Amino acid sequence: MDLTLILAGIIVFGVGAYVILDGFDLGVGILFPLIPDDAMRDTAINSIAPVWDGNETWLILGGAVLFAAFPVVYAVALSAFYIPIMLLLFALIFRGVAFEFRFKATRSKNWWSRAFTGGSTLAAFAQGLLLGGILEGVTTGPGPQGSGIALEFAGGSFDWLTPFSVITGLGVVGGYALLGATWLNMKTEDGLRDWSRAAARKALYVSLLALAVVSLYTPLKFDYIAERWFADMHWLSLSPVPLATAVVAFSLYRELKAGSHYPPFFYAIALFLFGYLGIGISLWPHILPPALTVHNAAAPEQSQVFVLVALSITLPMVLIYTVYAYWVFRGKVEAGAGYTH
Fold it and tell me: Is-above-0.85 flag for pTM?
């Protein structure tokens, strides 16, 4: 049994769960100032109130497993992406504070609404910057003698800031807006649902444009990605991924146009998952290109066993309470429903 692949799979699962679950509630925050009136905004924020903080558990889980199972990657990534990581963390903290204070405030309610939107948008954009930076690769060099670290970050503090990373940042903002709009379409009624359906169509265009730019740019820019997709007729065996993505995008557009309640949200999730799969195919076996692969960056076997034992206890608990929370708060959110905390 390859423990390294199991742990890498758990990280992939945790990051994917975070992107989907926290993605839609960040999307609600991104769309928040565009929602037509304050009553609708209250309904929108009530739709995510029971689950938003639990969604961020998956980010903590992914980071903890990365630290324990792939310490070299954790060390290099933290050095290479220190600024966008700190932007992400401060944005999530600021957004959480704004979320709670908005319900208590009277005269300053509008300010906390803006803070909620700003934190949500910055968090999404920072995640896109991280994605773009990872795809472009990280400059590494030999670690200090006697440190036990094979590689260390050898680039500049702003290597992650490129036109490509800005595009991926905007693409993630648009994608999360799509998830948020389809979530509101599923969870709300009447005027807010009609508005969110129209917003979802616009966000879909932005998401598809960003997806197309990334899909075209990366194989042209990076030889190892071009080789993965096109060398030795690989494109033939991998073609179901872009074809399925196109089918899902068309189905999402059709369901939005038809006024469906539930299918658009799950099609939006599928669109993200196919994009996630495409990134995984492009990067494999790298975990942080060009030097760090899944196997050469893994912790010793004893550490991997320890992490897996801990995960065998904690991961089922996280899954159970996540599923339970969504089951308890299933169904539509009624306009005017209160929030207590």
Answer: yes
CA distance 239 to 9: 23
Contacts 24+ apart (CB under 8 A), 293-302: 294/4, 294/5, 294/8, 294/70, 295/4, 296/150, 297/70, 297/72, 297/73, 298/4, 298/7, 298/69, 298/70, 299/68, 299/69, 299/70, 299/71, 301/3
Tell me the pLDDT tens digit for each residue of 57-113: 888 888 888 888 888 888 888 888 999 999 999 999 988 888 888 877 777 888 888
Angle between helical axes of 223-230 and 263-283 (0-180°, round to 10):
110
How far apart are the C-alpha atoms of 160 and 138, rounded to whole Å? 8
- Run of H or E residues at 273: helix 263-283
Give Rg (Cα) of the chain.
21
Residues with Cβ within 8 Å of 293's Cβ and at least 6 positions away in sequence, in order, are 285, 286, 287
